[in-house]
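Teaching note: in complex prediction, the entire set of molecules is handled at once rather than each chain in isolation. The prompt given to students was simply: 'Predict the structure of this complex.' The entities are:
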Amino acid sequence: MISKSLAIKVLNAALATGGDYAEIYLEETTPEVYSLENGRVESSSSPQSYGCGLRILNGLRSVYGHTSDLSAKSLLSLAGKLAASYSEERKITVEKVTHVKTKKNIKIEDHVADVPVEEKIAYLKEISSIIQGVDPRIVRVQTGLSSSVRKIEIYNAEGSEAKHFENVEERTRVFMIAIAAGQEGIETSFEGPGASAGWSYFTKTLDYKKRAKEAGEKAVMMLTAKECPSGKFTVVIANGWGGVLFHEACGHPLEASSTSKGLSVFSDSIGKPIASPCVSAWDDGTIPNEWGSDNIDSEGVPTHKNELIRDGICVGFMVDRFNGRRLGMEPNGTSRRQSYKFCPTSRMSNTYIAAGKDDPEQIIKDTPLGIYVANFGGGSVDPTTGEFNFSASEAYIIRDGKICEPVKGCTLIGTGQEVLMQIDRVGNDLALGQGNCGAESGSVPVNVGQPTIRLKSITVGGRGGILE
Amino acid sequence: MNFDKFFALAASKGISESQIKVSKSSSMAIKLFRHEIENFSVSDSQNVIAAGIVNGKFGSSLTEKLDKDTFEFLVDRILRSASLNEKQEEADIFKGSEKYHKRNVYNPALEDAPAEEKLAIIKAVEDKAYAADSRVAEVEVSYSEHSSESCFYNSFGLKLKQKSNYFYVALSVVLRDGDQTKTNWAIFLDQDLGKLDQDALVKEAVEGAAKKFGADSIASKKYPTVINREVMANLIDYFLSSAVADEVQRHSSMLEGKLGQKIASSKLTIEEKPLTKNVFFSYFDGEGVATQNKVVVKNGVLKTYFYNRETAKKDGVESTGNGTWGGGRVGTGFGNIFVKPGKQSFDELISGIKDGVYITDVAGLGTGMNAVSGDFSCQAEGFHIVDGKLAEPLTLITLSGNLLKMLKDLKGFANDVKMTLDSISIASAYIKSMNIGGK
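The expected output is the structure of the full assembly:
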């Protein structure tokens, strides 16, 4: 997007006052977004994003700026403004740029952008009609497709030889929202499968008809669900999106942006037990074509498969370049950002609890009384205290080892430290679910994941009184 | 940019009516950690959004890439977007309101103040925070400043411009006592640096965290519940989102069919006053319609929904000036909300409660709220109220209920009004009874 000679000029202007690392991040993103209401196209847009983020590090200090004007004048002015925050002798002069080839975890042949618009709209209409056909109580169906092609170029310099990286990120996500209304009230359900994959993934690999049907059925079922009881219960959490619990309660506190400053409950936990021995966990940005995967991170570091917990012992963090300095750890391909408008920091990609040995059905059978959370709406955590909350979007009472009546308004709360120790059963049915995670460096696509797990005892909030 | 060229190009390609909005913004932020500037950032952003009508269909586009091809790109995307649009209602571009209440809310003194002065402010706040309590272990304080300018033009000759700026100081603290860690934060937003009361900000953050030590859960049951201003503003925000006409017309609102009805306690009166001269002032909406102050709920009775032009047409009323437009389809929003306070002080408000709960913070409302039905359940913290006074701190409790039921059970507000960052001016609220989950 800019010439190599301009990149060298900008890097040198940025490094003029003693910076020891400078990085130019260039982005041009062309998305396409379609949204349908009850099977009718109501909006289609392609908001084009274009700009440059410039970062200069000097020891444990960081300055960041961005602009959507990529002219030499604008970039040199930005570099000058940022460099003015330091006032030391120049340490580095960039003399040349070397291009670095990146390993490809994402291989796409049938690009979604190349598929005729009519075909994509027809697909969304089919999903819409499947949902509408589930039950007459479905009063509104929203479907949508959001697909983006993000072209990235990075120039970074820690010495006289700058490195140049190029990457293309392609992601697509399909949205299905069903709203059901009856005498009991109004309920809504959501499905949002996504991948860094081509069109055939969405039409062939993904069982979109099943997902659409489930979206409709869930909204209708929740109409008659009773209020969830409150108190401390044994809770079984289903595989897949259930992993959002681990994402919030444990993943965020293991990001170097929290651990490096002593602001995380897991700050000094490497080598120490932080979870029950049946728990092992990974953050893996390399899984081919997954929603949270990538070839390189936002600093040009190749993505890794990073081990976080081995048999309950904390063995690693997600480390970005800047926070890695404070920790004395190498960056491990986890520095991410929403766009050029955000300074990158350590973030999760595809984060999951590894499969265990238990048969998921047996876990339910071995639970006399408790709650089965089939799906979560989402949740949040304070990484400093570890306190978290999750809202179930689909939950049931377990009685005598069987999944019984559905309940609504179920919230799980606790602290990450406790809940990881409370896991007493881990199933063999690992699955992943897609979401967008919001934090300091913006909203980034992530997979959460886990097999079916059981928590011995956790606080459940609901309006249904005592569980009997 | 020469917008006449855009309008001419659009017309030549069959776009009968069109509008364009150019937004420019710049910002800077400084963050301190352990007495050092950890982060400094500056930015300049610009984007252009445009829309037009092709054969009665609305099409729109957005780009951040401004060069000689920008107008071509915008026109091409408008044509594509309009050709896919299957809305049955015929769309048009708004010509303009008869009168606009323009005011100048830009404060040049903020931008002119030297960076050293802004840095000195947060250094002082940081020092005061460390000194406020011996248990303060970590302090993060940041200064952020933002200014924006937008121009809205249409092919009928309407020209509207608005410029605004603000700053905020955010302070977050970590207090440690033995193996207990407590966090809290406070934020101050204004246009005038002189209005920041550093001591009050530090007090709010540090004392708020200190009071949480020794917090425990509480027995699960229904309690008379007092909700602080920030949490109440958050809940009112969800309530008002249900008054957006798009949601009502699409059968996704708990307020459908409730216009003119008593939907809440008579203690609830809510006004939207976009023309208030403050940081949140705006005199035209996303469609170029002049904004207006209005009563939304009066003594518990729902007086109006929030309308943009399309939803107003559907209901046979005028737009309320609540259209929003970010480059895609036109939405609906609201701001500068004023909830009528009560007469009692906070202490008086809680004085009659024998065994109740005071909620000071919630987490997870984003996912714990069913915005359609109003049912919610979230993590909360606060204090036990015993014999009319705040007693032991509470943590890891859950607060759950239904928004409409809660507003019917509203017994009143205190007089401790505060303007929150959501642009909602509100006081602490007393709810007759709510479900608290704990032990």
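Point out the following to students. Chain B has a mean pLDDT of 94. The first helix of chain B runs from residue 3 to 12.
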